[in-house]
Amino acid sequence: MTAGLVTALVAASLSAVGMSRADAVEVYPVPANGIWNITGHGNGHGHGLSQYGARGAASRGLTAAQIIAFYYPGTVLARPAETMVRVLLSGSTGEVDVEASSGMMLSWPGATVALPVIAGADRWRLVPEGAGLALQYHGAAGWLTQRHSLPAQADIAHGGSIVYFGANGARGYRGSVGAVRSGASLLPINRLPLDAYTLGVVPMEMPTSWEPAAVQAQAIAARTYARYAVEHNGASPYDVCDTTQCQVYGGLSGEQAASNVAVNATAQTVVSYAGRSAFTQFSSDNGGWTTDGGQPYLVAKADPYAQYSGSPWFTWTRSVSAVDVAAQYGLRAITQIRILSRDGHGEWGGRILTAAVDGVATDGSTASIPTTGYGLTSALGLPHQWFVLQVSAPSAPTSLTAVVRDGGATVAWGQPASPGTSPLTGFSITAAGIARRVVSANARAEWVFGLANDVDTVITVRAINKVGESPPASIVVHPRSAPAGVVALAPSRLLDTRRGAGTLSPTRPMDLVVPGRGGVPTTGADSAMLSVAVVNPTAEGSLRAYTPGADAPTTSAFHYKPGSANVFTVAVSLKPVGRVRFAVTAGTAQLIVDQLGYVAAGAPGVTPVTPRTLARVATVATGPGTPLRVRGAAGVPASATGAWVQVTLGSSTNTPAAVQLYPSGIAPPSGTQLKVGALSRATATFPVPIGADGLIRIASSTPGISAAVVLIAYIAPPTAGSTAMEIQHVRPVADSVAGPPLLVGPAGRWFAIAGFAGVPASASAVLLHLTVRPTTSGVLWLSPAGGTAEQGVVVPYLAGQPNTVTVLVRPGVHGGLTIRTTSGVAAIGLAASGYLTTG
User: What's the rounded Cα separation, in Å, for the pair 138 and 145?
Assistant: First the structure.
């Protein structure tokens, strides 16, 4: 018999993996009436302080300092010395025109002079002259020049305030008002102390009737925003502007008494980070999530205070015409809008980052226009880029089927007819007596356990998208008690410590509860067959699997080493505690455990046969895999429910791989039985359920994998010739680890396996853990003593790669087993973990 090599399905490729909301593409076709109904959150960029959120926080009792600390985490409050700020006034008329009165001063860099009182003059103004400025006054004769050849910067002041006549009318300002030449332009500039400036900002940015703590927080943020600008805009002719491009500033004319109280209560207080003023951006309403502003203290996080603010922007709705949107993009018509990515924060996946508008161009060709969240928001005329268009939940899953088992059922379903207006994110499964569970959007089957036997139970499956859940799809199942004997199961995942269960070490074993999971009944199961993978071990060592309360096995443990495909099939007694303990001897490692089957009450059901090759597969298919006929082949009767097979794999690829064998007619299960390393080979023995059509499937995650599948025994209802299986605590037969090396070569060696190590002399087959430590590459033949090699099983091995495999072998003369190699010498160890006896 030639051993082929198979690479197994990588477990992750078989496990359903859901799409992240932040990365899912949302498609919104034009509604039948041509109008999208849109719901959104927020208004403004969302960085830092939310003004409505500050109000909500104040209403919950937070102080101004606490509000600042929440919206700018990691900062502190400081009181540096007062500074001056230069404000660019909007509405320039090409001149700086101020009201004239006595006591006015004119200044420029290096000089200050008093302006004369001129009879009849009511205005002073600065106008461009050459590369600099000229000063003029307005009287009965119109505008007359009072001073020529001023430099490119000059300011006019009058005590504590001055009236400036701009394009927006007359407005009073504290400090001075002057002009700065910037190329051909003349910029009107208001210079004043920072606190005086803040008096003119706060009432323009926040209603002064709001809670005092919120107004004080706004004062601190506005003051700091301007101070940051002063510290960073020294090379510019101004520090800040007076519009929403910076922060709105109304000067003395905009001040209100209530806001002045808040500013004075926080005088000179600014937000500091690492000894410098913070960039305290703020916006109207973040909708419940702040956004990342590119600073350590401008972070994206949930805002619990937004909901208490009474903001009209917290949640808003709009209606947008597809015709209007088409006009914005210069299209003849729009067919759909696609949301390509969101920031992942909050409802619907958060704010839109990128999108595309699909439609028909004016020349009749199809068009797809990429855009940003900001661009789409502008085109739709919306307040903010955090929104969702007209949405719907998915339709119900289709084609529900169920296969009942003891205490549960495997329910399968088809794709909903419609995913709704956003991609599926999962499926929910509910039934009486079990907790609701959610599986990924790619899942099409789920084992539902914990159901009452002999009772009709409704299992309901619903599809889920961002909008909600679909209508229910339901099926009635009637679980029944498991038949006695050996039950093979499609492999299902019981444990993956990489998902937060911890790491194994010599001082940290791990216990796993098996009954009631993966198809094993809650009562009546004496033992379990498992596939165990040791993942990312940091050192070479051995894994031991045993029942807590029993003596830990010291021999023939499963050998693992870094960089190898360390996957083993084990049979473990569940008596008396229903748990399996896993322990490693060296290093640390993660563990993956899959359920393969169980033995109930040791009743009949397994019939060993002379090993027969079911199939040699040159290249195992990926996806649903390669079908293999079992029932009716190699003497397997039509009543057979499972096959005990030995699978030998060979890999011609540079990538480790895993394989699955499972009954035909079901979706690929979540677990796997065997893994093979790159350019390596591996073997294992395990039970596999047979599909209703008499087939099993073998599937590989990677092309370039070959397989030999050999029938060792079959599982069927008891007959006169069938046997009972008993799984015992592992007991050594022969060991080359604790004792002297037990070497086997081409000449062969005899071992007693029946009537020894807890195995009765009447055993018709023995389940052995075989450890091989080879010096060369080759094959082990394990044959009944006195029989031919073809009556036994084959185990391949590679030079320098110790390994432990599980085999089911039949004893021969005097209960013996003959083991020989095809070439070279190998040290071996044997331990008995179970046996078959005539029922």
Answer: 9
Task: Check if the beta carbon of residue 753 is closer than 8 Å to that of residue 765.
Answer: no
DSSP 452: P
DSSP secondary structure string for all residues of 226-274: HHHHHHH-TTSS-SEESSTTS----HHHH--HHHHHHHHHTTT-EEEET
The pLDDT assigned to 152 comes to 96
Q: Could you tell me which of 238, 213, 223, 201 has the C-alpha nearest to residue 278?
A: 223
Axis-axis angle for helices 257-265, 212-232 (nearest 10): 70
What's the DSSP call for residue 517?
Answer: S
The pLDDT, as a whole number, for residue 38 is 93
By C-alpha distance, which of 813, 751, 814, 740 is closest to 773?
A: 740
Residue showing tokens 């791990």: 510
Residues 178 and 156: their CA atoms lie apart, in Å, by 6
Could you tell me where the beta strands, DSSP code E, fall in 521-653? Answer: 525-535, 541-546, 558-560, 567-573, 579-584, 590-600, 604-617, 626-629, 642-651
- CA distances, 535 to each of 47, 150, 545, 563, 802 (Å): 43, 80, 15, 9, 16
CA distance 285 to 302: 13
Q: What is the pLDDT of residue 485?
A: 57
693-746: per-residue pLDDT in tens?
Answer: 888 889 888 888 888 888 877 777 665 555 556 666 566 666 544 556 678 888
The one-letter amino acid at 764: S
Query: What letters, b where the CB count within 10 A reaches 16 and e where it falls short, cover 108-147?
Result: beeeeeebeeeeebeebbbbbbeebbbbbbbeeeeeeebb
The pLDDT of residue 23 is 47
| Cβ burial, residue 692 (10 Å; 0-12/13-18/19+) | exposed
Q: Which of 218, 215, 156 is nearest to 189 (CA)?
A: 156
Q: How far apart are the first and last CA of the chain?
A: 31
pLDDT at 86: 97
How far apart CA 782 and CA 495 sit, in angstroms, is 33
One-letter amino acid identity for 205? E
Neighbours of 732 (CB within 10 A): 20
Q: What is the pLDDT of residue 531?
A: 81
User: How confident is the model at residue 626, as a pLDDT?
Assistant: 85
pLDDT of the residue at 13: 23
pTM for the complete prediction? 0.50
pLDDT in tens, 437-473: 898 888 888 878 778 878 889 999 999 987 788 899 9
Residue type at position 587? G
**Among candidate residues 42, 67, 68, 44, the one with its CA nearest the CA of residue 57:** 67
Three-state helix/strand/coil letters over 321-357:
EHHHHHHHCCCCEEEEEEEEEECCCCHHHCCEEEEEE
- The parts of the chain modelled with pLDDT lower than 50 are 1-23, 482-484, 556, 602-604, 736-737, 839
Q: How far apart are the C-alpha atoms of 767 and 751, rounded to whole Å?
A: 14
Question: CA-to-CA distance for 18 and 10, rounded, in angstroms?
Answer: 17
How far is the C-alpha of 248 from the C-alpha of 48, rounded, in Å? 17
Q: Give how far Cα 355 sits from Cα of 45, 47, 381, 562, Å.
A: 18, 22, 15, 45
State the Cα–Cα distance between residues 9 and 649, nearest whole angstrom: 12
Task: Enumerate residues 6+ apart whose C-beta is below 8 A from 261.
Answer: 212
Give the DSSP per-residue string, 688-744: EEPPTTSEEEEEESSSSEEEEEEEEEEE-S--TT-EEEEEEEEEEEE-SSSSS--EE
